[in-house]
UniProtKB/TrEMBL annotation:
This is Copine-5-like. Gene3D superfamilies: C2 domain. Residues 68-208 form the C2 domain. The keyword Calcium applies. GO terms for biological process: cellular response to calcium ion. The gene is LOC111939644. Belongs to the copine family. It comes from the Eukaryota. GO terms for molecular function: calcium-dependent phospholipid binding; metal ion binding. Keywords: Calcium, Metal-binding, Repeat. One of its GO terms (cellular component) is plasma membrane. InterPro entries: C2_dom, C2_domain_sf, C2B_Copine, Copine, Copine_C, VWF_A, vWFA_dom_sf.
Length: 502
């Protein structure tokens, strides 16, 4: 859910003991209830837990439920998939989410069946996790190793959640195939294991006979179709965006607003900068939608705000990096409300001009980001613009250089212009490059504002969609920087289990 949903990975911290309970782990105003009941068909069964979330109010006799998870059968270590999205802007509660574990495994095989008439086999393996209803879901497929009956597959990483859904004793089925070009892969055999077995690592416990059930039924002397051996098994914590936020990483949010003349005369209702007494213009709406969410991750709520593409007083020179509050030594505004106020004041004192240059504001934030490389701060630049970029080559170079820094760039395009250049900067399909140098990371997210502003009664929902889309890539971009630099989140001491007084 990007920044807007509450994932339930953190329920691993709960020890379900077969009884109902209430756990205060989010904030004083929320209660997490864990309930569990034994299976009626089995006298000595494990628990079948689920969780529901309700507000905590000591004065209320009737407590509504905001939602509940699915039920997981026969497990004392449930890993719930259901997400609670109702929390809206209660972002302080997200710090309770913990990182997920990632397992890295490597396998080899020995004396697999020969399936190709003019060769050996081209084996690969398919891993399946078991579901509550007894079915299996594919969770990983290895690469194909060509022309061998004794393949060694490359090590691969997979979230433990994907491998066994958090239940270490749940069956994991592995099928071995001989690859065929036409897609009609030949089945060699299968075996089953579990996370708990695999966690033993390389040993005689993790040498598996690959069995073809049809062959076993037909041939009395059939033993197996080869063996598969686990060569290595390691588990590491996969840190999340919220682990870093919880550990103290601060997001520094900078706004850059397009003041070029193509936006139209601000005194005219047709202008994208028109200041109506009745409603916010496109720039204000975009700023509010993104800023209201991201400001919750910035402790001091002071946001540098810049303008570009205008003639500024007192001498009327064109600037692509002027402070909206008029203070070049400290362009920070107090909260999103302060940014909006400074933006509106700037519209009354500057002359919209041009061209549309991005590189100056990108480099402005990059200079700040270059001073803090230890992971304690991460910088986000929000550019709101209406036009076709004028300094594409310089901006590409600035972005390629910024990709090495703790920094992300969000571009929101307003108006009806074609934004092909912005899509190119986004780099989702083709990583941008400059002077033959490819960007180390994808740090740009472009979103066209018009896709989310339907107007009328649904406008509010479109605003929420805009915020989700704009912020969707920030967590992964932050993680990509931290991982590339080997920066781990600061560990947080465990919270007290004592229930706070009402």
């Amino acid at each position: 859910g990007g920044l807007g949903g509450v994932s339930e990975v953190f329920w691993r911290k709960l020890r379900v003991l077969g009884v109902s309970g209430t756990i205060t782990s989010l904030c004083p105003h929320l209660r997490v209830h864990t309930t569990s009941s034994p299976c009626p068909c089995v006298s000595m069964s494990l628990s079948t837990p689920h969780v529901f979330l309700s507000p905590h109010c000591p004065h209320c006799s009737h407590i509504p439920q905001f939602g509940r998870t699915e039920v997981i059968d026969n497990s004392l270590n449930p890993d719930f998939l259901h997400k609670f999205d109702f929390l809206g802007q209660a972002f302080c509660t997200l710090g309770e989410i913990v990182g997920s574990d990632v397992a890295t495994l490597q396998f080899c095989a020995n004396k697999l069946d020969k399936k190709d008439f003019f060769g050996k086999s081209d084996p690969f393996m398919v891993f399946y996790r078991s579901n509550e209803d007894g079915t299996f879901t594919i969770c990983h497929k290895t690469e194909v190793v060509r022309n061998t009956l004794n393949p060694v597959w490359a090590a691969f990483a997979i979230p433990v959640r994907a491998l066994c859904n958090g239940d270490h004793d749940r069956a994991i089925k592995v099928e071995v195939y001989d690859w065929d070009r036409d897609g009609s892969h030949d089945f060699i055999g299968e075996f089953t294991t579990s996370y708990r077995e695999l966690a033993r690592g390389q040993s005689h416990f993790n040498v598996y006979e690959v069995v073809n059930p049809r062959k076993k039924m037909k041939k009395k002397k059939y033993l197996n179709s080869g063996t598969v051996t686990l060569l290595s098994f390691t588990v590491e914590a996969e840190h999340t965006f919220l682990d870093y936020i919880r550990g103290g990483t601060q997001l520094n949010f900078t706004v850059a607003i397009d003041f070029t003349a193509s936006n139209g005369n601000p005194s005219q209702p047709t202008s994208l900068h028109y200041l109506s007494p009745f409603q916010l213009n496109a720039y204000s709406l975009a700023l509010r939608a993104v800023g209201d969410i991201i400001q919750d991750y910035d402790s001091d709520k002071m946001f540098p705000a810049l303008g570009f593409g205008a003639k500024v007083p007192p001498d009327g020179h064109v600037s692509h990096e002027f402070p909206l509050n008029g203070d070049a030594s400290n362009p920070a505004c107090c909260g999103i409300a302060g940014v909006l106020e400074a933006y509106q004041r700037s519209l009354r004192r500057v002359q919209l001009y041009g061209p549309t240059n991005f590189a100056p504001v990108v480099n402005h934030v990059a200079r700040s980001a270059a001073m803090v490389l230890d992971g304690s701060q991460y910088f986000v630049l929000l550019i709101i613009t209406d036009g076709v970029i004028s300094d594409m080559a310089q901006t590409k170079e600035a972005i390629v250089n910024a990709a090495k820094l703790p920094m992300s760039i969000i571009i929101v395009g307003v108006g009806q212009a074609e934004f092909d250049a912005m899509v190119e900067l986004d780099g989702d399909d083709i990583r941008i490059s400059s002077r033959g140098k490819v960007a180390e990371r994808d740090i740009v997210q472009f979103v066209p504002f018009r896709d989310y502003m339907s107007g009328g009664p649904g406008a509010g929902l479109s605003m929420a969609g805009l915020a989700r889309e704009v912020l969707a890539e920030i967590p992964d971009q932050l993680l990509s920087y931290m991982k590339a630099r080997g920066i781990k989140p600061t560990p947080i001491p465990p919270m007290s289990s004592e229930t706070p007084p009402p």
